[in-house]
Amino acid sequence: MAIFLNKESKVIVQGMTGSEGQKHTKRMLASGTNIVGGVNPRKAGTSVDFDGTDVPVFGGVKEAIEATGADATVIFVPPKFAKDAVIEAVDAEIGLAVVITEGIAVHDTAYFWDYACQKGNKTRIVGPNCPGLITPGQSNAGIIPGDITQAGRIGLVSKSGTLTYQMMYELRDIGFSSAVGIGGDPVIGTTHIDALKAFEADPDTDLVVMIGEIGGDAEERAADFIKENVTKPVVGYVAGFTAPEGKTMGHAGAIVSGSSGTAQAKKEALEAAGVKVGKTPSETARLARELLAG
C-alpha cells in the first residue's frame, strides 16, 4: 500500500511545457510515474516527447481528466498564476493536487485552500512550496529525487525539502512506504496530522519519521494528535535549534516569537507525546533504526 499516491495513479502536469515542468516531468517518468498528460491552454493539441514517451498537452484540467482518467496533478506554474491553476484543479475535482511552486502569496494560498474546503475537500492539496511526494518503486509526483532510496516500511512527513532528501538517503537501506513533503509556508494544504493519520491506517508502514521546523505550532498540534491517535512509533526532528529569536529564518513560515515556535518547545511537546526526537538528522535516523530493530 501507499498513502495518497501509488502505481495506479494517473498524473498530469500543469505547466509541463515550461522549463521546470519539462525537466521534472522527465525525472518523474524515469521514476516510473504514470504521466498521462500536461496542461497548457496555449499548446493544447500538441505533445511533448520525453525520450520516446509522447505526452499529450491538453487545454485544461477537466479536459485532461476526461481524456485520460487522471486522478492527480503536479503544478509547476509561476506564482502569480498558481492560484488559478489550483482553483482549476479543484473545480475539476481531481483527487490530488501537488503544488510545487515557491513564492505564492499567502493570501492566494489561503484563498485556494478555503475554496477547496468550500467545494467539499474533494481535492487533496499538498503544498505549496513543497517537494511533492513519492511512493518508491511506484510513483513520484514532484521534485524528490527518485533514486536516493527504495521501497520499505518507514513513512516520512516533512516540512523541509532538503531534509526530506537527507532522511530518505540516511535510511535508504531500510526504505520508505511513502514520503510526503508538505512544505513550510504559513498556510499549506495537507498537514503533519493528515499524513500521520494516513500512515497510522497504512498496514505497510511500521514507523513514521516526522520532520518539522521552527515557527508556528503545527508540530505541537501534531504531538497532541500522536498522543491520542497514533499507535505506531514516531521519530521526530525539528530544524532550527540554533536560530535566534524574533528573526525570519529562510522563509516566512519560520518566525519565532519568544518561546512560541522554537525548536526546543516543539521537541518538548513531541517528547511528551512519546516521540523520540533527534538533535540532528543523523541522530534521528539512528533512533529510527533502533526502534525498528526492537
Number of helices: 9
Ranges where pLDDT stays below 50 over 5 or more residues in a row are: none
Report Rg: 19 Å
- Helix % is 25-40%
Can you walk through the features of this model?
Keywords: Ligase, Nucleotide-binding, Tricarboxylic acid cycle. Heterotetramer of two alpha and two beta subunits. It holds the Pfam family CoA_binding. Pathway: Carbohydrate metabolism; tricarboxylic acid cycle; succinate from succinyl-CoA (ligase route): step 1/1. The structure is a single chain. The protein has helices at 19-30, 61-68, 79-91, 106-118, 161-170, 192-201, 218-229, 263-272, 281-293, and strands spanning 11-14, 35-39, 47-50, 53-58, 72-75, 96-99, 124-126, 132-135, 139-142, 151-158, 176-181, 207-213, 234-239, 276-278. The protein is of the alpha/beta class and 294 residues long. The protein folds into two domains: 11-126, Rossmann fold (3-Layer(aba) Sandwich); 148-293, Rossmann fold, CATH 3.40.50.261. The chain has a seven-stranded mixed sheet, with helices on both faces. It is globular. The protein starts with 10 loop residues before the first strand and ends with a helix. 51% of the residues are buried.
